[in-house]
From TrEMBL:
Pfam families, per the entry: Glyco_tranf_2_3
Biased composition range(s): Basic residues: 671-687
Keyword Transmembrane helix among UniProt keywords: no
Species whose genome carries this gene: Aquabacter spiritensis
Top-level division of the source organism's lineage: Bacteria
Entry-linked Gene3D superfamilies: Spore Coat Polysaccharide Biosynthesis Protein SpsA, Chain A
GO molecular function terms noted in the UniProt entry: transferase activity
SUPFAM superfamilies hit by this protein: Nucleotide-diphospho-sugar transferases
Keywords from the named record: Transferase
Region annotation Disordered: where it falls in the sequence: 668-688
Name of the protein: GT2 family glycosyltransferase
């Protein structure tokens, strides 16, 4: 079980488990930089030789510890080259910060905060582990034990550094360096185009906006395509800029692949007029900002040729900085229904069969700037997800813009479109993202909350009392599965709970510890049409958590729903599971601040995932009965929740993560690491069974991306693709 199970179960591997409560920042000191005073109160801090050598070829972000400064002071840090030139500037405050050190950096000049000390940490896994072994403040122990302690502490500290860097501006500089290196080898490298075919001819439709130079750039980008089976219907507004109109009438009108449509109709109506001229094939909007890369047409046409059932395809993209330089990629998940409901994550380059658009009646002008979003919702809410293909290749390049985080261009109109598609009220959440109201059936269905436990009345009491006192959804029963409790406090708590919530039952299980078997015993006694597996170390803090989860799990496509779990310090413990990370599965963005949006705002809006933790897992009884119970034979302690979710996905059920149900997960933040050799061997064997059964050693989660690292908890770009880049669906 991944980061789940009742407190007695110790089951998470280091890659997916949060750090211990003993803070590694305190046990592993930094490498303090040699400092010298400068005129005016500034100080110059020399970087160690090892760091300067690493920065010789490319820049990188580093974690800093700041000593001797007022915690409230804002300190200016100028990054200096060897000749004293300023090659970067950051402003930081507090004890810890992340900064980007450009290529050639040799020192840091600090101003403000007094006699500031700066310390840096090695970034590499082995470097930080060795540093921890040599300098860590650990109790006296043998060299072997010290190495193991240093390895565990360094692993946690490295995760904290990654979270620190991810949430800082330093990430942008490092991301740009990494992306440009990746781009030189793995962008615009698609193979040969398919032969021309009428039903695969790609027609771009785009309004001419802006300057004549922009229109010329769009034409040049199309002319550079490696696949020439394209055409462009260019829409010229009647009131266009004279220079733009002159270019259109002098150049575009004479181009053999361009049809010029002059109209004074508004955008959606003019695009419909252009669509009427497309008899067959594929259509794609050509935005006024951004350009298709040279193999865009080839990969889109090849996708529809290889998959005759494909109705729509979209690609990854890149973003450009102020000077037009590539600064990062937008690496998307495969079709993600709930993410689309939060905003138009599909992006700029989307191709769709013309007959699909015709069947839908084209764009609806009443939705204004959200007319395309409305069309996508109508096309994708009703059809099977397997008819949507994501091409995990960068095929479109555009300047950075605010809505890249997942918000639609016109949230008000987009909310109207989503309301029309779902028939339910929609609110505009933070940053313009959409949240459709989860509808709870009337009368509300009974939810059976199954809580396995053995003693630990302190934790279980918090879970039960907060559940009963705070949960606004009252149609639930409590099924406590007692795996051999012996402490009087536990039995007193059982009686207290039954008095406070009469619909409570205690199921006794005196067998050896086997988490799936214990949960299955509780489910066998449950009466509800909805089941909720809940750890005994969970605390309810959100009264609407159960309403939210029930409203999602009753949707016909949904089988399983998971909640957002926070550590007691209110950082993220669970926001969905990425299967295939570290050859198994992991919670991404562990210990990120609760409001960090993540890629496409997926940490703060509902979205489909491949798995969720069993610490709070809701499943429809119909799904449970279809896929079978938790596997108590192969996965007695570990992997059982991930296996259950993957079986649900393979059976055609969706698994959904929601951040609108937030709970506190207590024990995982302080759980001990000590395991016997036999316990470690059992966990290893269960991971191997998971690998054999699901191929997690090579699996790329459809809701992840093969261009992203399978050894990163923060969706870092891989040095090279780590999985196939052919067009894919959301299937496991």
């Amino acid at each position: 079980m991944l980061q789940g199970g009742m407190v007695r179960a110790v089951s998470a591997e280091s890659a997916s488990r949060p750090p211990e409560s003993s803070h590694p920042f305190g046990t592993i000191p930094p490498i303090w930089l040699r400092a010298e005073p400068l005129p005016g109160g500034a100080r110059r801090h020399a970087l160690p030789l090892a760091f300067k050598l690493q920065l010789f070829s490319s820049g990188r972000a580093v974690a800093l510890e700041i000593g001797g400064a007022d915690p409230e002071a804002v300190i200016r840090l100028d990054i200096l080259a060897a000749d004293g030139r300023v090659v970067g500037t950051s402003r930081v405050s507090g004890r810890f910060a992340a900064v980007f050190l450009p290529r050639g950096a040799a020192a840091i000049r600090s101003e403000g905060g007094g006699e500031v000390r700066l310390g840096v940490f090695p970034r590499s896994k082995i470097g930080l582990k060795l540093h921890a072994f040599l300098r860590g403040a650990f109790p006296a122990q043998s060299a072997h034990r010290r190495w193991r302690t240093a390895a565990a502490e360094a692993r946690d500290l490295r995760g904290m550094h990654a979270t620190l860097i991810e949430a800082s501006p330093a990430r942008e500089g490092e991301q740009a360096v990494r992306y440009r290196r990746y781009r030189s080898r793995h962008v615009e490298d698609f193979g040969s185009p398919v032969p021309p075919r009428t039903d695969l001819h790609l027609t771009f439709i785009g309004r001419l906006e802006g300057a004549a130079a922009d229109a010329a750039a769009r034409l040049a980008a199309l002319e550079r395509q490696t696949d020439a089976d394209w055409s462009w219907i260019a829409i010229l507004p009647a009131a266009a800029d004279p220079a733009l109109a002159a270019f259109a009438n002098d150049t575009l009108v004479r181009h053999p692949k361009v049809r010029l449509l002059i109209t004074d109709a508004p955008p959606a109506a003019s695009i419909n007029a252009a669509l009427a001229e497309v008899a067959d094939g594929l259509v794609a909007c050509l935005p006024d900002a951004g350009l298709p890369l040279r193999d865009a047409v080839a990969m889109l046409r090849a996708t529809f040729a290889a998959h005759p059932d494909c109705r729509l395809a979209y690609t990854d993209e890149e973003r450009l900085g102020p000077e037009g330089e590539p600064v990062g990629g937008l690496f998307k998940p495969a079709f993600n229904r709930h993410l689309l409901r939060a905003g138009d994550y599909l992006g700029d380059l989307v191709a769709i069969r013309s007959r699909v658009v015709a069947d839908l009646g084209g764009l609806r002008p009443d939705f204004g700037a959200a007319a395309r979003y409305d069309l996508l919702l109508r096309a994708l809410e009703t059809g099977p997800s397997t008819t949507v293909r994501h091409i995990p290749r960068v095929a479109f390049s555009a300047p950075e813009r605010a809505r890249d985080c997942g918000a639609p261009p016109d949230p008000v109109q987009a909310a109207r479109a989503l309301e029309a598609a779902l028939g339910t009220p929609v609110e505009i959440a933070a940053a313009g993202r959409l949240r459709a109201h989860a509808r709870v059936p009337q009368p509300p269905p009974l939810v059976s909350i199954v809580i396995p436990t053995r003693d630990r009345a302190d934790l279980l009491g918090t879970a039960l009392r907060s559940l009963i006192a705070l949960t606004s959804y009252r149609a639930f029963e409590i099924v406590i599965v007692d795996n051999g409790s012996v402490e009087p406090q536990t039995f007193a708590l059982f009686e207290e709970t039954k008095a406070a919530w009469p619909d409570t039952r205690i199921v006794r299980d005196d067998g050896s510890f086997n988490y799936p078997r214990i949960c299955n015993a509780g489910v066998a006694e449950a009466r509800g049409s909805i089941l909720c597996l809940l750890n005994n170390d969970i605390e309810i803090v959100d009264p609407g958590w159960l309403d939210e989860m029930v409203g999602l799990v009753v949707e016909p496509r949904t089988g399983i729903v998971g909640a957002k779990l926070l550590f007691p310090d209110r950082t993220t413990q669970h926001a969905g599971v990425v299967v295939g990370l570290f050859r198994y599965a992991a919670h991404w963005f562990v210990h990120a601040a609760a409001d960090v949006p993540g890629p496409f705002a997926r940490l703060v809006c509902r979205n489909n995932v491949s798995a969720v933790t069993g610490a709070c897992l809701m499943i429809r009884r119909a799904c449970w009965d279809t896929i079978g119970p938790l596997d108590a034979v192969r996965f007695a302690e570990d992997c059982n929740d991930i296996d259950l979710c993957l079986r649900a996905r393979r059976a055609g059920f969706e698994v959904v993560f929601t951040p609108y149900a937030q709970l506190i997960h207590h024990e995982s933040a302080s759980r001990g690491r000590k395991r016997s050799r036999s316990h470690r061997n059992r966990l290893k064997a269960q991971r191997q069974r998971m690998e054999d059964l699901w191929g997690t050693d090579t699996l790329v989660d459809p809701h992840y991306n093969p261009n992203l690292s399978r050894t990163s908890l923060h969706a870092a770009l891989a040095a090279a693709p780590e999985g196939p880049r052919h067009a894919r669906t959301d299937e496991i």
